[in-house]
Every structure is written in structure tokens, then in C-alpha cells.
Write a structure and sequence with these properties.
Layout (H helix, E strand, L loop, with lengths): L2 H10 L2 E4 L2 H8 L9 E2 L14 E4 L11 E2 L2 E6 L19 E8 L3 E9 L5 E6 L9 E3 L4 E6 L3 E8 L2 H9 L11 E12 L12 E2 L3 E4 L8 E4 L9 E4 L7 E6 L20 E7 L7 E7 L5 E5 L8 E5 L7 E4 L2 H6 L5 E5 L10 E9 L15
Parallel strand pairs: 4-6, 12-13, 16-18
Antiparallel strand pairs: 1-2, 1-3, 5-12, 6-11, 7-10, 7-12, 8-9, 8-11, 14-15, 17-24, 18-23, 19-22, 19-24, 20-21, 20-23
């Protein structure tokens, strides 16, 4: 065997890895074991460390059905001997050679995978635990890939791919004798436990609190625990009757000092911002009327979902960047007759916990038409 072929075979073989004790201890009580979190090689091909738990780390397989089962840890692979997988169509549908692993999530957790190629930018994708085409759940061409709040016992297919043109160019050149193969790559698979309401949440290595809860102390002397917050998710939304005055107007006060988290994602932004969730009981109104909602400060975003709380139920979204946000809920009479109470999401500005309360201004406006909707009222002098 030539030196280059020997080196390629060695890279494709399982690497010796050490289990990261911090994460192992975090997951040990859940009864899970996993390959290690750090690859270590001695100068003579033997382990240079004398401590830790050692295990063989599987390398990504060339064929999807041959993928081996892994969990959190660091893994090494090489695409030089890989071929395109016609059944799956390549990572992100881009063709090219692929390597495959089956990733198990042993406890309820967030799953994050990052990859670093020696001479290329890896593509990553998750798919269900089969090898059927057109089944990608998520893919990323140049960034880590993350899925949040997966159930314990979930198994996904992870594919690592490469741009076909880049692969062709790199494969035409023989692997270097004394340097890493440009087609080799490292994978890091990380898990962050999702803690249920009531679970102790400190130290932070325990995991993160489930959406709709916040790590806080409920009583003196008690350890911090994941605490359910009012008005933080659709299930805990603050039921809010809309009571209009004679002029068809109303105002709602929002206090940004109240604890909130960011449990929802909206089309107009707001990622990472705390939000308050209201569920509006609509008033009795004449036909062909809509409800306009504006904000008294320009850096607050608004979003509306109806009839449900799914992202696909979003009917209005305004980021509140540069000008006060404005949304309109149409078909008020029909929605009220159907017993629908829309969800209103108020995206709070960053670092606003010490800010004073602000106002949501509501008013009846004519129903929007195909040519547009009523203009916002002029600003007060």
C-alpha cells in the first residue's frame, strides 16, 4: 500500500477518542453513553493520555444504509473515497459526495452539529432515520446545524457533503504525504439538555430551561429552578379583553420589567428578544371593520397569529425598526363569531428590563381592501 493510500485508510478508520467527563456526567443519570468528545493521538499511533474513558469513534459511512449510530462527541472523516448518493440527492439537494452517521439524542435536548473541513466548507443536513430521498429536515451550507427541543430517543441521519465542483478539483490531486488531506473533516456533535418546569437549572451545565420557563429562584433559600412565566407562550398567554371607547379606541399597557423569554420565532425578526404574549378577546363591531394596533415606542415589534399559534398562522408582523410597528387584524366580526381570539406577540427591545411601561394603541379602522389598508393616524405634535 502506498503511503498516501495508507494515510487515507488510517483517516477513514475509527479514531481513538476520550469521553468529555463534564457532558458524560450531565447525561449519566439519564442512562446514556456515547463516544468521546476529544480525539487524541500519540506520536506512535497510541494514546498519549493516561486518564479518561476511551472508546472507538465511528467515522461517517459512504452509503446511507451503512451509517453507524453515534451521540455527542467529536468525529473525524474523509470524503476522498466517498461517492454521490443518488437516493438522497446530496446535502441541501446539491449533489456531491456524502458521508453519513446516525445521531441519537438519548434525552430531551437541543442538538447542534458543527463541521470543519481541511480544504473545503462542509455541508450538513438532518433527515429522518431512513435513506429515502427528499426527506431533509434541515440543511446548512456554511454554518452549524441545530435542531431544538428533540424528544429523548430521537434518531436522525446526519449527512456531511461538499460542493461537487470543489470535490472534483480536490480529488484530482493526490492526498499530501505530510499534511492533512484537504478532503478530511472534523465533526462536533453537541447536546444541551432541555429542562422541564420545576427542574433545578443551576449550574448552567445542567442544560437550559424549556420554552416558557425561566431559571429563577421562587423563594429564599430555594435553588433556582425552571419557573413557568405568565404571558410567555401561547399556552400561558394573558387573556386580554379589547374594550373600545366611544371613539372606537383603546390602550393596553405593557411593562417590560416583567420576566419574559423568547419562545417564538416570527417572519419579521425578533430572534433572541424577550416577548410578551396576549390573547385578544375581540369586541362586537359593525361589519367591515378591522383592528389596528400601534406602539408608543419605535423599537417594539409586533406579530399576530390566528386562528392558532403555529408559525403558519401568522397574519401580520412588523419589526418596529426605524418607525413604530403597526399591524392590522382583519375580519373582526367573522373571527369573533367563530370564537377566535388572536394571539398578539409584543417583541421587547434588548436590555429593556429597567425601562418604563409603554402603550399599545388600538383603534377600529375600515376593513383592508385589495388596494391597501387605512393609513396610520398622524403623529401627535
Amino acid at each position: 500500500m502506498s503511503p498516501a493510500a495508507h494515510r487515507t485508510a488510517r483517516v477513514l478508520a475509527p479514531a481513538r477518542v476520550r469521553v468529555g467527563l463534564g457532558l458524560a456526567l450531565t447525561l449519566a443519570h439519564a442512562g446514556c453513553t456515547a463516544p468521546g468528545a476529544e480525539t487524541t493521538e500519540g506520536s506512535g499511533g497510541e494514546d498519549s493520555s493516561t486518564s479518561g474513558v476511551w472508546a472507538e469513534a465511528p467515522a461517517p459511512a459512504d452509503a446511507c444504509p451503512d451509517a453507524l449510530l453515534v451521540s455527542h462527541g467529536r468525529y473525524r472523516g474523509n470524503l476522498r473515497a466517498m461517492k454521490p448518493d443518488d437516493a438522497t440527492g446530496g446535502v441541501c439537494g446539491g449533489g456531491g459526495a456524502d458521508g453519513f452517521l446516525r445521531v441519537e439524542v438519548p434525552v430531551r435536548a437541543d442538538l447542534r452539529v458543527a463541521a470543519r473541513g481541511v480544504g473545503f466548507v462542509p455541508r450538513l443536513s438532518f433527515a429522518p432515520d431512513d435513506c429515502l430521498g427528499g426527506r431533509e429536515i434541515a440543511c446548512a451550507a456554511d454554518a452549524p446545524l441545530e435542531l431544538r427541543d428533540l424528544a429523548g430517543g430521537t434518531v436522525l441521519r446526519l449527512a456531511v457533503g461538499i460542493d461537487p465542483t470543489v470535490f472534483s478539483d480536490l480529488k484530482q490531486k493526490p492526498a499530501p504525504e505530510d499534511d492533512p488531506d484537504p478532503l478530511s473533516f472534523d465533526l462536533e456533535i453537541g447536546l444541551t439538555r432541555v429542562l422541564d418546569a420545576g427542574e433545578v437549572c443551576e449550574p448552567a451545565s445542567r442544560g437550559r430551561c424549556v420554552a416558557g420557563t425561566l431559571c429563577m429562584t421562587s423563594a429564599p433559600g430555594e435553588p433556582p429552578a425552571c419557573t413557568t412565566l405568565p404571558a410567555d407562550t401561547c399556552s400561558t398567554a394573558l387573556r386580554t379583553p379589547v374594550v373600545l371607547g366611544d371613539a372606537g379606541e383603546a390602550a393596553l399597557v405593557v411593562d417590560p420589567a416583567l420576566p419574559q423569554t423568547d419562545a417564538h420565532a416570527h417572519s419579521c425578526g425578533g430572534a433572541g428578544l424577550r416577548e410578551r404574549v396576549l390573547q385578544l378577546d375581540l369586541p362586537a363591531v359593525p361589519p367591515a371593520r378591522a383592528l389596528e394596533i400601534t406602539v408608543s415606542r419605535p423599537d417594539v415589534g409586533l406579530a399576530v397569529r390566528t386562528p392558532g399559534c403555529l408559525a403558519t398562522d401568522e397574519v401580520a408582523c412588523a419589526a418596529g425598526i426605524g418607525a413604530p410597528a403597526r399591524v392590522v387584524i382583519d375580519r373582526l366580526a367573522a373571527r369573533r363569531a367563530a370564537g377566535i381570539a388572536p394571539y398578539l406577540f409584543v417583541e421587547l427591545p434588548p436590555d429593556s428590563e429597567r425601562d418604563p411601561a409603554f402603550t399599545l394603541n388600538l383603534r377600529l379602522v375600515p376593513e383592508p381592501t385589495p388596494w391597501g389598508m387605512p393609513a396610520a393616524p398622524p403623529a401627535a405634535p
